[in-house]
Amino acid sequence: MAKWGEGDPRWIVEDRPDATNVNNWHWTEKNAAAWSKKKLESLLVGLVIDDEKVGRGEITKIDKCDGDASANNRKAKLIFFYEWDLRLEWKGKLNGSDAEHHGTVEVPNLSDENDESDLDISVQIKSTGAGTEVMKEMMRKKGAEIIRKKLGEYVTALKTEFTTGMILPSNKQQSGGANNVKPTVTKTQFNNAANNLSRMEKLDIGVKLSTLTHNDTQQFKCTAQELYNALTVGEMVQAFTGGPAKLATEKGGAFSLLGGNISGTFQELSPATRLVQQWRLKSWPEGHHSTVTLEFDQKDDCTELRLTQTEVPASELERTKQGWQRYYWDAIRRTFGFGAALL
C-alpha cells in the first residue's frame, strides 16, 4: 500500500472506519425513489391554489407516482437522475358558489432532462355544469404555476437534502461531528494549496493599515440553495477545498479551512439569499478581519453571486482576488459541476 506523500497520488489511501470508497474514487449510487415519493407527497398533497378573484382549489392526493430517482457520487461529484410520471387529484370551489368541482393534474415527464419551468402540465375537470370551465382555467394557469414551483423545490431538495453525507470523508472521523472529519488529500496537494495562500509578507502591526474593497460577481449553473450549501455544508466545503475544514454553521460560529490559512466567523446566514462572514487570511496582522458579504440571486438559468469584501489590506487586494477565483469559484465549479447546464 502506498504511504502518505509517496508515489502516484491517485493511489494514496488512508484508513476509513467503513473501508469503502476511499477518495470518493469509485462510482456510488443512492436510490432516491422512496425518499422522492414521500417528498413529493409532503410538497403536493394539501397544496392550496387560491385566486381571490376566482376561487380556491386544493390538491387532495397523488393518484399516480411512477418512476425512479437516484443520486450518484463519482470522485466527489454528484450526478442526479430522476424521472416521474405524476397524476394528482384536486377539488375546488368558485367564489360565491357551494358547488364543489373535482379533477386531475397530469405531469407526464418530470425528469433531469427537463427544466421545471417548462414542464408540460395538463389539467382535467370531472365536474359538469356552470362554472366548470372557469374552475378548470384557474387550475390550468394559477394551479400549474404553483405546482411547478413545488416540483422545483423537490429537485432542489434531491440535490441538497437527500445527498447529505454522500461525499464521504476519507480519514478517521474525529470528535465533534461530520464537519471535523478530514477527507483524503495528498501531502503535496495540501501543502501547495496552503503555501500559495500564505506566501505573503507579514504586515507590520502598530501602523495604520491601508485597506480597500473587493467587489465581484460570479454566475453558477445551479440553484441558489445548492450554491449556498456548497459554502456552508462541511462535507461540501471539504470537497472543493480538498482538505480539512471546520465549520460551525450558525451565527457567531467559527470556520477554518485550507490548513487554517482562511478563518473567521459567520455573522449572518439567510439560506439561499445572503451570507455574511468575518474573514481573514492567516498572514494578515493578528486580529484584522475583513467583512465578506455574499448575496445569492437565483435567475431562470443560473444563480448570480455578488461578493463584497471590505477592509482588505491594500497590498494584498490583487492576491485576494486571485485566491477567491482559484480556491473558491473555480474549485466549486470543477468539483460540483456548477459550470454545466442547470438541470
UniProtKB/TrEMBL annotation:
GO term, biological process aspect, one: protein folding
GO cellular component term, pick one: cytosol
Superkingdom, natural source: Eukaryota
Disordered: annotated span: 97-118
Gene3D superfamilies the record matches: 3.30.530.20, Activator of Hsp90 ATPase Aha1, N-terminal domain
The protein, known as: Activator heat shock protein ATPase 1
Keywords noted in UniProt: Stress response
Domain Activator of Hsp90 ATPase AHSA1-like N-terminal: 29-166
The keyword Transmembrane is assigned to this record: no
Gene: AHSA1_1
UniProt GO MF annotations: ATPase activator activity; protein-folding chaperone binding
Stored SUPFAM superfamilies: Activator of Hsp90 ATPase, Aha1 (SSF103111), Bet v1-like (SSF55961)
Family: Belongs to the AHA1 family.
